[in-house]
Amino acid sequence: HFGEASNMMLVITALDHRKRVDSNLPEWRLTLKEIKRPQFWELPSWLPVPHEPDAMHFEFLGRDELRILVDTYFAELSIYCPLVHWPSFERSLSEGLHLRDNAFGAVVLAICAVASGYRYEQSSTDDYATIFVKSGMKWFKQLPIQQFSLGQDVSLYRSQM
Fold first, then answer.
1. Rounded CA gap, 68 and 64, in Å?
2. 106/97 Cα distance (integer angstroms)
3. How far apart are CA 122 and CA 136, in angstroms?
4. Where is the Xylanolytic transcriptional activator regulatory domain (predicted)?
5. Could you report the per-residue pLDDT of 118-158, keeping only the tens digit for each?
6. At how many degrees (to 10) do helices 25-35 and 7-23 cross?
7. Where are the domains of the chain?
């Protein structure tokens, strides 16, 4: 269906509007500057400024355990929602990018958390510490989720997380 109310027409209208906005960009900037209300565009002074933790402070699994969870994620879970490109992820992981890049380190932690929850079968004899680690909470708790709600730039790794 390609009528006036179709998704295709919505995209075409949005692209046309974008062309008009780009051609009048100085005018739009001036207009936006006049109507912007600082209380909605600036962080309040009482709100802590988000900081990005060092990737070195992330606690990762050992190589063998990490390999098991990554394989589980891509074999069992990624097939339903393929947000991460497997060959690129593998290459970056083998190069140790998760130890140098905070955003990629967070993706690795998210994959560990999801895969741990998938692999873990709770037993009645498990204590709280075992459940915490095996269910993926140990990895999930390290994710810097609060940064995404405070307006930091979005990168590929952040959107994958």
1. 6
2. 11
3. 12
4. 71-133
5. 877 655 566 666 666 667 888 888 887 765 554 556 566 66
6. 90
7. 7-41, 56-160
